[in-house]
Design goal:
Layout (H helix, E strand, L loop, with lengths): L1 E5 L6 E5 L6 H4 L25 E6 L10 E7 L13 E4 L2 E4 L4 E6 L13 H19 L6 E8 L11 E7 L4 H17 L3 H12 L3 E4 L3 E4 L10 E5 L11 H22 L4 E6 L13 E6 L6 H6 L3 E2 L3 H11 L1
Parallel strand pairs: 2-15
Antiparallel strand pairs: 1-2, 3-4, 4-7, 5-6, 7-9, 8-9, 8-13, 10-11, 11-12, 12-14, 13-14
Helix pairs in contact: 2-5, 5-7
Length: 331
């Protein structure tokens, strides 16, 4: 049975084409991702091969840009944005432009070249999350920064050019359209119902369990009702909070543990797929107290084709309730 399904938060429809569903093994990657044995600028001992670190979690007594770090943050060697450009808007008839102002950082998440994020223990993930918080707080001090996007590319199909596990941060002078839509959707829902749409969504997910992947008293992970991609999974804390940087360590720890469970299950079910995961959080200078930060995990199993590009309506051939069932079995 094929269905149109509407996103719970924003005005976006998807097509769930369940009759075209394939087995997880049909979606799994079958190729080796990276050649082994090459030089890696993120490895311990190669600190001078990157730009100077702007932040690091280090062993006591060790110096910047030397071994002894646990998580290390540097500016991207090939940044998408630069503070040298000015965020000045120019108009030319119907054309609107702005200088490419912003910051593009790389967070090197651990010292072991062979260990991927899904292999991290809970404390290692917590260190990464605490680093994200520190960098968000740092960039929020800049009044020209409106949004801080943290994301992870894993595997070549996920856009990663280096195997060594890392995430990235882009601080930009506007709020991206998708986040704006989520914030507007959350605010509209609150105006009508006097409740948070994300909190209500978590309540329904835990009650009927069909989309549920894993949960505890602090965090829920699930495949959303209107998933755009096979095995798309959201990880959301149960405590209402608009900004990731305001989460306490217990929430971060439990969120990291839940995210680790999801990634390890994806590895088992889809044979260690390439993926992206993204943090959606309140904007730096504005936003809404009725927003709710969360992490979205998107395995790369399919390609976008003509219909999707023409309509922005994605055809998902794996029903999210079935994906959640597979992921529960993979825990």
């Amino acid at each position: 049975m094929t269905e149109f399904r509407k996103d719970t938060i924003i005005n976006r429809w998807v097509i769930i084409a369940a009759e075209r569903a394939r087995r997880p093994s049909d979606l799994a990657e079958q190729t080796t991702e990276y050649a082994k044995g090459g030089f890696c600028p993120f490895d311990v001992g190669n600190e001078t091969a990157t730009p100077p670190e702007v932040f690091a979690m280090r062993n006591q007594g060790t110096l910047p840009d030397t071994p002894g770090w646990q998580v290390r943050v540097v500016n991207n060697l090939y940044p998408a944005l630069s503070v040298k450009d000015k965020p000045l808007i120019t108009n030319c008839g119907l054309y609107l432009s702005m200088g490419g102002y912003g910051t593009h950082e790389v967070m090197i998440e651990g010292t072991d070249h062979e260990k991927q994020f899904a292999d991290f223990d809970d404390q290692a993930i917590l260190r990464v999350f605490l680093t994200w918080q520190e960098r968000i707080r740092f960039h929020k001090k800049n009044s020209a920064v409106c949004y801080i996007q943290i994301f992870k590319n894993h595997g070549k199909r996920g856009g990663a050019s280096l195997e060594h596990t890392h995430s990235q941060l882009v601080a930009m002078p506007f709020v991206p359209g998708l986040v704006e839509q989520e914030i507007r959707g959350a605010q509209d829902y609150f105006n009508t119902n006097n409740r948070c749409v994300y909190c209500d969504l978590l309540k329904q997910v835990r009650e009927n369990k069909v989309y549920l992947v894993a949960h505890d008293s602090h965090v829920v992970s699930f495949c959303p009702h209107a998933s755009r991609y096979p095995f798309e999974t959201w990880v959301i804390p149960t405590q209402h909070q608009a900004g990731f940087e305001d989460a306490d360590q217990e929430t971060l720890f439990k969120t990291g543990r839940n995210l680790g469970l999801v990634l390890r299950s994806l590895n088992r079910v889809l044979n260690r797929p390439s993926y992206n995961f993204v943090l959606h959080t309140n904007p730096a200078q504005s936003g809404s107290a009725n927003y709710h930060w969360h992490i979205e995990v998107i395995p790369i199993t399919t390609s976008i084709a003509g219909f999707e590009r023409a309509t922005d309506c994605i055809i998902n051939t794996m029903a999210p309730e079935k994906a959640a069932e597979f992921l529960r079995e993979g825990l």
